[in-house]
Amino acid sequence: MKKTIQIAQTREVLILAENITYSRVGDWYNCTWQDMKLDVICPKDRVNHAPQPCLVWICGGAFITERKDIWAPEMMYYAERGVTVALVDYRTSDKGSFPAGLVDIKSAIRYLRAHAADFCIDPERIFTMGESAGGTLSTLAGVTSGCAEFDQGEWLDYSSSVTAAIDIYGLSDLSLRAAKSDNTEAVPSWQFTAFLGNDPKTAAEKASAVNYVTKDTCPFLILHGSADDTVPIAQSEALYEKLTGCGVPADFYVIEGANHGDVLLYQDEVKALVLEFIRKF
What we know:
Elements: E1 14-27, E2 32-43, E3 52-58, H1 72-79, E4 84-88, H2 100-114, E5 121-131, H3 133-143, E6 164-168, H4 200-206, E7 220-225, H5 234-245, E8 250-255, H6 268-280
Parallel strand pairs: 3-4, 3-5, 5-6, 6-7, 7-8
Antiparallel strand pairs: 1-2, 2-4
């Protein structure tokens, strides 16, 4: 069969730009280098396209593992609705203790701002979002605007500040970690041994997002499952209370019955809340 048909363009055509080096960091006892990578999902027509918001996605993995592309299919929801999505690698605890991962996320944000025109990004509308350990880093990126100690490496002429941050069951107050196993506010100790390094008390203070919140902190969206048995919901409650107490715009959604990493957190109804939050700003 041969047939001529007419097709109208009804949606954006997207591309995936893979394994872009955004930074180089020391590796193997600083004897060599590791290239830090990111992927970008953006419009194919990058020349004539208007700038749009950018969502920096940060994968979780208890600070001991991560893979930037594992959630790429779920991120297509946002890319198909006018948001450039950057999927970012960061150093896990086997490569560097805190603040290594945060330093990497901030480097990636600066890179994206420096190359905004290449990926149809509006440099004034960059958001972070992450789950679990990635939620911790997303939150820290949101609250540490202007903290020069975490801006290290390349692209230092550009800001690492974000328009707003989205936290999916991340850690915000490491002082809530308790030794007793029956304490419902406790966070499993295996998540911290390598992450906090040789001075865990000092690192815990510096890695607690609640310690940086001020009236000038960017807006936040917080998502947490009511049945989370890995990161207690007390972590999100502490962040929400600190944000609202300082007058920072914050929305907090508790997903009824959802556990850590639950499929309920990735349903379109939840994604619509995220998209609405991005569009608000």
